[in-house]
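TICKET: design request
STATUS: open
ATTACHED STRUCTURE:
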């Protein structure tokens, strides 16, 4: 979602005559669009800001501006102001659309203190975004935000406090943006939402439209070859979505379905509003409609109060589901969240040990999943040149990275039928059939 927001900020600034530099040394405006989901992301910003100060001190420009945007800006503005007085502006995720006006304010009035904008109310964000015409070349696969914010309040998660309440864009706005992406050469669109299955934007007759209907609408866009969406909360996946995976031809048979934990006890403490039984039901339902569905997931280990038995439950859930790919994290306390105040925090070394064990299992599952394709055919959407001459790389239907050898008469943007010869690490190697 930050990539999407950053691209839109670029569109706005470029359409007003700003120029994009490839390195920070040549710029006089630095924008950090930040993520606050886990502790590691915070640490990264703090070291980057140290380097930004050095550039600002060295610069001879009258208006050298440093902006911190995004979720850290939203959740800890006072902290940023106190620790980094050389930051000129703090811009939350619902204010980034006004970036150009805000920069002008700064330039017009150089004596201003740091400007802070952390309005969380439903905003005119997407209307402003869509007014700026895209100037940078689009990739083959691009994101399109359809829903933002979250009302779920999982107890570990900072998102409801940084992106605000759920907001869905209208069908018309989404279709029009999708068409313009396709007209610019995009072949695959990945729909984004914090809680994408709860999409309920208005259609042309002001009726609420569900995600499954939206997928049908988008699938009729000429030239669009693939559709994906992320991220889904298992509690909101309904039968219409499962059916869409069978019937909407350009909807890919892979789904990111974060479970977070395999223990009912922990799922309850996380306020995830489903249990492991329900998760298995959702997986079975999807596989019932589309037997080759590939699943990926997110996991948190060491959530407050997680016992060895809870962790074992996670391991055996993984063994039952068999994932194609997964992300796993040590729990980290986040500002404003209830879990951060729980008194049963897990020691760091226990979290590390559990993470190591879980990642070993997930890694093996990914390797097994990939190896099962050797000797088979997959369809690959080619997204860019490979490292060696005659190679192109892309993604299979199941979102595996695939390198295609001897791809001389293929082009980026094609969907190639590929015979898989081998796997290397986490990607597949194949040849055009
Ligand atoms: N600690 C660790 N991981 C977290 N995630 C979200 N909040 C936290 C946290 N406080 C993970 C979840 C989520 C992914 C985007 O980040 O697994 O699905
Ligand atoms: Fe965070 Fe839960 Fe909302 Fe996902 S569903 S964004 S984990 S609060």
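STATUS: resolved
RESOLUTION: sequence designed for all positions
ATTACHED SEQUENCE:
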């Amino acid at each position: 979602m930050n990539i999407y927001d950053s691209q839109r900020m670029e569109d706005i600034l470029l359409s007003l005559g700003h120029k994009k530099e490839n390195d920070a040394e040549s710029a006089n405006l630095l924008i950090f669009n930040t993520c606050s989901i886990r502790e590691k992301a915070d640490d990264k910003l703090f070291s980057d800001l140290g380097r930004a100060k050095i550039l600002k001190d060295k610069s001879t420009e009258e208006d050298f501006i440093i902006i911190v945007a995004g979720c850290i800006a939203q959740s800890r503005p006072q902290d940023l102001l106190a620790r980094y007085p050389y930051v000129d502006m703090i811009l939350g995720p619902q204010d980034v659309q006004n970036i150009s006006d805000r920069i002008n304010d700064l330039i017009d009035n150089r004596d201003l203190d740091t400007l802070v904008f952390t309005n969380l109310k439903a905003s005119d964000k997407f209307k402003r975004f869509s007014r700026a015409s895209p100037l940078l070349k689009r990739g083959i696969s691009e994101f399109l935000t359809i829903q933002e914010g979250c009302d779920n309040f999982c107890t570990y998660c900072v998102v409801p406090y940084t992106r605000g309440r759920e907001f869905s864009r209208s069908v018309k706005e989404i279709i029009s943006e999708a068409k313009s992406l396709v007209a610019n050469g995009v072949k695959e669109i990945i729909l984004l939402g914090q809680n994408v299955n709860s999409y309920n934007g208005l259609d042309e007759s002001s009726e609420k439209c569900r995600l499954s209907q939206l997928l049908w609408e988008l699938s009729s866009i000429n030239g669009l070859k693939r559709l994906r969406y992320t991220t889904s909360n298992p509690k909101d996946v309904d039968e219409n979505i499962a059916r869409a995976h069978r019937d909407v031809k350009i909807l890919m048979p892979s789904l990111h379905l974060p479970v977070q934990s395999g223990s009912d006890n922990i799922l309850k403490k996380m306020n995830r509003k489903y249990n492991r039984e329900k998760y298995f039901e959702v997986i079975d339902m999807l596989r019932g409609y589309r037997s080759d569905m590939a699943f990926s997931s997110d996991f948190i280990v060491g959530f407050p109060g997680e016992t060895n038995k809870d962790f074992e439950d996670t391991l055996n859930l993984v063994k039952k589901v068999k994932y194609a790919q997964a992300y796993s994290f040590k729990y980290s306390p986040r500002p404003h969240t209830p879990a951060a105040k729980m008194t049963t925090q897990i020691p760091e070394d226990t979290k590390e040990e559990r993470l190591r064990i879980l990642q070993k299992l997930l890694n093996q599952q990914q390797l097994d999943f990939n190896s099962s394709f050797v000797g088979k055919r997959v369809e690959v959407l080619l997204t860019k040149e490979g490292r060696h001459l005659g190679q192109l790389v892309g993604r299979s239907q199941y979102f595996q990275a695939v390198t295609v050898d001897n791809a001389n008469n293929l082009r980026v943007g094609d969907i190639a039928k590929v015979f898989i010869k081998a796997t290397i690490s986490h990607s597949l190697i194949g040849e055009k059939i």
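CLOSING REMARK: Residues 150, 152-154, 157, 159-160, 194-195, 233 surround iron/sulfur cluster (ligand 2) (CB under 6 Å). The two ends are 36 Å apart (CA to CA).
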